[in-house]
Design a protein that fits this description.
By secondary structure, the chain is an alpha/beta fold. Helices cover 36% and strands 13% of the residues. The protein has 2 domains: 147 residues, Aspartate Aminotransferase, domain 1, CATH 3.90.1150.10; 246 residues, Type I PLP-dependent aspartate aminotransferase-like (Major domain) (Aspartate Aminotransferase, domain 2, 3-Layer(aba) Sandwich), CATH 3.40.640. Pathway: Cofactor biosynthesis; NAD(+) biosynthesis; quinolinate from L-kynurenine: step 2/3; Amino-acid degradation; L-kynurenine degradation; L-alanine and anthranilate from L-kynurenine: step 1/1.
Length: 413
């Protein structure tokens, strides 16, 4: 195989049809940012927009901003933008709450549709908060529901008549392994099982086809590939066929059919709005609106193409430059089975990652030993991958990670 060099990576950038999109982000000079799978970079428009919302809309118009500036419509307006990215109809997605709360709401709604079934099926690679919510809900219901975990490879074979809901994250947060959403949805439908998908590592990173594959429910976050900022609001999807048959357990005033009638008895709104709970966080949603605007005029097929190319490049360069350095590829080599990240195992992965961060290459670490490198095609360049691998090689060859300060665990890894 021909050896790759820095010039070849720069040449790829020169031909990149998404290269223009990097200008939409404020990426610090001299920094290689490969952690958009945890927190997206700051869109250049966000600071000015937030300032305008704070100083002009809130500052000058005060309470009238709910009507004058359409604050009340933000959950649906942003939901419609996310619908385009996830293969949903505009009236099937709403922005609200956090991923954890949305898992609770949708899982509760799904279980209520399956009164004779008790198993919530998930896999050992699912994100812990989803599993915690399922455990808590099962305890709360007190009807012998149980969460059953199998390996990712065993999910398809376990789908059966006792399963109420299959709850999966499409892209494994540790390894980047991708579930076959279409195949799982097909098997589930044949068995009378509902599906609940977590799109935290999918939405904005690759084309998602919720309706085309027959998904029932989905949730996702706004702060990763959607670039909405730290703790950005989440979103949820309910397929149209279930919209008026479902009830969620959290009866809040924004989910009421007539919130400003101030009635004492709860009556849910029709459609997706019944999954709203409290007052929308306007400032957070204003930031997310800028994050979603970074996808204007962007072809999701091009995003996927570049994402795969970036991942393939990193795998090839690490094999070329870091052979024998103690790294083990933890992600699928086949791009079709991988999301927009590549993970490597190392016995001292946390310390190695801290050494990389000190050198200006930002990825992250997931216990027990995985270093994650995420690729956001809108602002990550091919030459960034070259630079990251060159610094990784230097850190490993010079054993820089052995410095004591790199082994001191921070609160967030």
């Amino acid at each position: 195989m021909t050896m790759l060099d820095r010039a070849q990576c720069a040449a790829l950038d020169a031909k990149d049809p998404l290269a223009f999109a990097r200008a939409r982000f404020d990426v610090p000079e001299g920094l290689v940012y490969l952690d958009g799978n945890s927190l997206g970079a700051l869109p250049r428009a966000t600071a000015d927009h937030l300032s305008a919302v704070v100083r002009n809309q809130w500052g000058q118009d005060l309470i009238t901003g709910w009507n004058k500036h359409g604050w009340v419509d933000l959950p649906r307006r942003l939901g419609a933008k996310i619908a385009r990215l996830t293969g949903a109809d505009q009236d099937e997605v709403v922005v609200c709450d956090s991923t954890s709360l949305n898992v609770f709401k949708l899982l509760s709604a799904a279980l209520a549709l399956q009164p004779g079934r008790r198993v919530i099926l998930s896999d050992t690679g699912n994100f812990p908060t989803d599993l915690y919510m399922a455990q808590g809900l099962a305890d709360l219901l007190g009807r012998d529901h149980r969460l059953e975990l199998v390996t990712p490879e065993a999910v398809a074979g376990r789908i059966g008549p006792d399963v109420a809901v299959v709850m999966l994250t499409e892209i494994d947060y540790r390894t980047g392994r991708r579930h076959d959403m279409a195949a799982i949805n097909r098997l589930a439908k044949a068995a009378g099982v509902l599906t609940l998908w977590d799109l935290a590592h999918s939405a904005g990173a690759l084309p998602v086809d919720l309706n085309g594959t027959g998904a029932d429910f989905a949730i996702g976050c706004g702060y990763k590939y959607l670039n909405g900022g730290p703790g950005a609001p989440a979103f949820l999807f309910v397929a149209k066929r279930w919209l008026n048959e479902t009830r969620q357990p959290l009866f809040g005033w924004f989910g009421h059919a007539a919130p400003f009638a101030f009635e004492t008895a709860y009556q849910p709104k029709a459609g997706i709005d019944r999954f709203l709970v409290g007052t929308p966080p306007v400032l957070s949603m204003a930031a997310l609106e800028c994050g979603l605007a970074t996808f204007d005029d962007i072809d999701l097929i091009e995003i996927r193409r570049k994402s795969l190319a970036l991942g393939d490049l990193m795998i090839r360069l690490v094999a070329q430059e870091c052979a024998g350095a103690g790294l083990t590829l933890a992600s699928p080599t086949d791009g079709g089975q991988r999301g927009s990240q590549v993970s490597y195992a190392h016995d001292c992965g946390y310390a190695v990652m801290q050494a990389l961060i000190a050198r200006g290459v930002i990825g992250d670490f997931r216990a027990p030993n995985l270093m994650r490198f995420g690729f956001t095609p809108l602002y990550v360049r091919y030459q960034d991958i070259w630079e990251a691998v060159a610094i990784l090689k230097a850190v490993l060859a010079g054993a820089e990670w052995r410095r004591p300060e790199f082994s001191q665990r921070a609160a967030v890894t």
